[in-house]
Amino acid sequence: MDEPIITTVDLTKVYGRAATEVRALDGVDFAVAAGEFVAIMGPSGSGKSTLLHIIGALEPPTAGTVALAGRRYDGLGDDELTRLRRERLGFVFQFFNLLPSLSALENVLLPALIARRHGADALRGRANELLTRVGIAGRAEHTPAELSGGEQQRVSIARALLLSPQVVLADEPTGNLDSRSGAEILRLLRGLNRDEHVTVVMVTHDPSAAAIADRVVFLRDGRVCDEVEGGSTQRVIDAFTAIQAPADEPELVGVGGTAAGVGV
Ligand SMILES: Nc1ncnc2c1ncn2[C@@H]1O[C@H](COP(=O)(O)OP(=O)(O)OP(=O)(O)O)[C@@H](O)[C@H]1O
Ligand SMILES: [Mg+2]
Q1: Which residues of the chain have pLDDT under 50?
Q2: Rounded to whole angstroms, how far apart are CA atoms 102 and 231?
Q3: Which ligand has its closest atom nearest to the C-alpha of 55?
Q4: Domains of the chain by range and CATH?
Q5: What gap in Å lies between CA 140 and CA 20, rounded to an integer?
Q6: Which among 37, 145, 176, 227 is most buried, taking Cβ atoms within 10 Å?
């Protein structure tokens, strides 16, 4: 692998104590190369969102380390972590998380407004370019309520890219979209990964979505239990089926992958 941009070592996250203790992550060693597009799959509760949140510096691990481009988070103070989150990472969520009273353009500019009070004007050009790049230049003045789900997700992707992050972290970005809009969003993310050289880590439940990635990593019970190369929905379905089968029983066939038909 090329020099990893993300590295986690023995990452552990425990929620609660004693009787209510949950080991959401149980020693995750995970690395992502710069420019790679990695999908994370696993059963519900396997720790996918927890892993993404810790890589995103949104919450600290209980033990173990995470580093972005060689900088370990445990050595950074709150201000440095906030800056790292704003300037080096972009986030895309299942429910878009747009501010309802702002236009699409204003939503895209929000990270700039928050990060540097005087920088927003300079970034207006980039925000407009990004709205064009994600295919909704004509909707710049619309509020989220006036946009379809797919269009709202395009706005949130443009917002994630505004400050040219090194890594975009996406938690089920197509989970709230119909299969056609979902496929368009996946194609868009893949294209941005190639054109803008942004590394993408995407959590998904959909084998055909995961198959657009270079690599698919599987979590079970808070541990990495397998990984396969992307490119084939069937290969992803087979691996996902295998990790869900009880160890002492033959594999069950078929997990009902919603073939969204992503032609990439
Ligand atoms: N803030 C929290 N407090 C307590 N337990 C939590 C918290 N967040 C997550 N958990 C628990 O940690 C485990 C992993 O949760 P996580 O959200 O990472 O799973 P996931 O793989 O993203 O699941 P899903 O596919 O349903 O989104 C689950 O058992 C969950 O209940
Ligand atoms: Mg989750």
Answers
A1: 256-264
A2: 38
A3: 1
A4: 4-244 (3.40.50.300)
A5: 47
A6: 37
